[in-house]
Amino acid sequence: MLRKVAKSAVLTALNAYDKRDGALQPQSPSAWDMTVSDVGELCWEGNSLAALAERFGTPLYVVSRARLERDYREFLGAFTALYPKVEIGCSYKTNPLPGVIRAMHEIGASAEVISHFELWLALRLGMPGERIIMNGPAKTDKALELAVSNGVRLINVDNPDEIATIERLAAKYGRRQEVGVRVVTSVGWSAQFGLRIGTGQAMEAFRRMKAAPHLVPCALHAHLGTGIHDAGVYFTAVTEMLQFARRLRDELDVEMRYLDFGGGFGVPTVRPLSPTDRKLIDNGFQVKPPREGLAPTTQEYAQGIIDRFSQYYDVASPQSPQIVFEPGRAMTSRAQCLLLSVLALKNGDRSSEYAILDGGKNITIPLGYEYHEAFVANRMKETQTRRYSMFGPLCHPGDVLFKHRDFPKLVKGDLIAIMDAGAYFVPNQMNFSNPRPPAVMVSGSDVRVIRERETFEDIVRLDAI
Ligand SMILES: Cc1ncc(COP(=O)(O)O)c(C=O)c1O
Questions:
Q1: 21 has a pLDDT exceeding 60
Q2: Which atom of ligand 1 is the closest one to the Cα of 265?
Q3: Which CATH number fits domain 65-333: 3.40.50.2000, 2.60.120.260, 1.10.530.10, 3.20.20.10?
Q4: Which residue has the least CA distance to atom 16 on ligand 1?
Q5: How far apart are the CA of 303 and the centre of ligand 1, in A?
Q6: Ligand 1, closest atom to CA 333?
Q7: Is 81 a residue whose pLDDT tops 60?
Q8: Contact predicate 122/92, CB 8 Å
Q9: Ligand 1, pocket residues at CB < 6 Å
Q10: Is residue 261 within 8 Å of 235, Cβ to Cβ?
Q11: Do residues 251 and 204 touch, judged by C-beta distance below 8 A?
């Protein structure tokens, strides 16, 4: 009993602390380059989201081509201002909508693939082999054969068994295949990924690759995690990789052509939910949006990484290695939102009223572990007078989108825009008794369907019925 009272007092104090400057305010739509029309509708590139929902129905993904381009150019530009040989590979897995991937390639990104299907898709989208980098913890022989036979530029080895397979395939196709190793540093993801620098595994892999006549060992790859908001993690990993590259040169006479620092960069508009957030939510409190300055800027990353790089390589020399990044979230998260309609409203609990939406957990998996902004896209000028918990249509107790957020008083048919739906929404989605949503891409007044709404027939297309 005493524990319960103490816990409630702590949570109430925490909640009061969060609101010390007044009620929690949502982030501004300008963070996604959105505007609000005179009639209070949320707009992207001049297109009213309410009008798009009316035209295409909901649930609906909307992608802004201008925002994709902005995030790509700003990220790349921050690095190339300091060092010209920097390249961005589009992380297919982060947002596997072919329309988005194609746009990323048109804007300038190369391809970073992690499965046989993704490699096939890159080739299907017309990417030449020399613009594809192949990663992944489990490359099948068939996938490697497709890669080698199509002249994929770089294959980053994730386990020692791959080395012999790639050597055999390179011999078969009369190629000398550029290869690297996904390394594990003292920070970031490890487990089933990569080979550790610290244990000597990565060095051993380079020794074997160097002895293979059809392989050109020339790259280091790392990927530290996703949604990372701590630049120090990158700086540590980059330093360890640079030190290892020097050892490879000194001990094996192996020179790096590529240093691939992976993806994982968080965006300022999304933050992971902490254990404290979860306690607050469970006890009926609203949790706060990401604070300003949460994510280091791209300039801070660029400065920190290139400063370290320049201690090992001459930034003015064309012989210095190409730096590769594979940022998925930082490229596509903010360029896509998900539109859902309010299907029903009902009395809720002590803390919130309930709204049932037409899209649920099956298409919003990241809402379970991250804070994403949500707007009532058709009534942006109204004040937030009510607190709601929002649920999907799945007839499953876990079908909760989020709890205890303030909105204007909702009515059936209102349009909810879930922001930052461009990373890990699409790859994680599943049917769960419903068709998967279509996607449209807006580019000024040009509005294009890049994925049709799945039909009921589509859902059972592969079944014997
Ligand atoms: C190897 C690799 N590269 C790039 C990415 C993209 O990560 P993010 O979307 O966090 O930038 C991932 C995602 O986990 C990955 O596994």
A1: no
A2: 11
A3: 3.20.20.10
A4: 223
A5: 21
A6: 9
A7: yes
A8: yes
A9: 91, 93-94, 112, 114, 135, 223, 226, 262-265, 326-330, 423
A10: no
A11: no
Domain ranges of the chain: 23-63+334-454, 65-333
How far does the centroid of ligand 1 lie from the alpha carbon of residue 224, in Å?
A: 8
Query: Which class is domain 23-63+334-454?
Result: mainly beta
**What percentage of the chain reaches a pLDDT higher than 90?**
91
Q: Mutate which of 119, 326, 334, 370 to test ligand 1's pocket (most atoms within 8 Å of Cβ)? A: 326
Instruction: Quote the CA–CA distance of 365 and 11 in Å, as a whole number.
Output: 26
pLDDT in tens, 385-396: 999 999 999 999
Res. 24: pLDDT tops 90? no
Query: What would you report as the CA-atom Rg of the chain, rounded to the nearest whole angstrom?
Result: 24
> What are 246-274's pLDDT values in tens digits?
999 999 999 999 999 999 999 999 999 99
